[in-house]
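#onboarding

Welcome to the new folks! Below is a worked example of what a typical request in this channel looks like: someone posts a single protein sequence, and someone else replies with the predicted structure as tokens. Don't worry about understanding the tokens yet, we'll cover that in week two.

Example request:
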Amino acid sequence: MSMSENKRPSRLCGQYRRIHIAYFIGIGASLAALDLTFSETRWFHWPVMIWGAVLCVHLLYCKSISVDDSWVEKRTNRIRDKSYDLGHIRNIEDSYKEDTPPIDSEADKRE
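Example response:
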């Protein structure tokens, strides 16, 4: 599969995500209004739940095909930068690079 073939599905998924969600909300609200207005038994939640589950699976699939190495690198850097115990993480990284066991942190020593 060439690079252009691989990028096309992820571009299309991102393009239509808001449209899918808008249809879901609009039709779900319409079903709820119809059900509450004309029906004695409540049934609208079943199609909305099933469609919502399918929509979630679809969105997760689209996200999974759009993940590439640059996204992974950006995400790990963001998580690493927001880490509260950055010194401990750097200690683990350094010990991994030097192939030595990491130094126990203060929290490990307290236990």
